[in-house]
Amino acid sequence: MASAPGTFLNKPYSLLFAGIDRNGKALRFCIPFEELQSKRTIYIGRSGVCAIRFDREYKEVSRLHVRIRYEEYTEGNGYLYIREEHATTPTLVNGHPLYDEHLLMDGDELTFAGITLTFKLA
User: Of 16, 76, 78, 99, which has fewest CB within 10 angstroms of its CB?
Assistant: First the structure.
């Protein structure tokens, strides 16, 4: 039986973001599902509160660039949503501008501030 897009089906997933920056530097970030499940919201940016944190060399990444929100509908099953927070440069999902909250799917490509990351459930 196929699962609905974005569901976790009680498996011990991690959220994996991997890609490159504009200089060709490889980037890889892994967030345990338990962290997302307990916090419900994680951020990508330069702030110390971000689960995916970029250092000062990435000046075009805002302090709170995007947020990823987990919405659980039954224990361990839910959806991930991505939304720009205080981004000063645009965020694209699969080449399309992120204007509102968007359902984040396995394999989606995020592009912002010269960085391209592919999202995977691992």
Answer: 99
- The helix (H) or strand (E) run that includes residue 53 is strand 52-53
Residue by residue, pLDDT tens for the chain (122 residues) are: 333 445 455 555 789 999 999 999 999 999 988 888 889 999 999 999 999 999 989 999 999 999 999 998 877 678 899 999 989 999 999 999 998 999 999 999 999 999 999 999 88
Query: Is the whole-model pTM more than 0.70?
Result: yes
Specify the CATH number for 14-121; select among 2.120.10.30, 2.60.200.20, 2.30.42.10, 3.40.50.10540.
Answer: 2.60.200.20
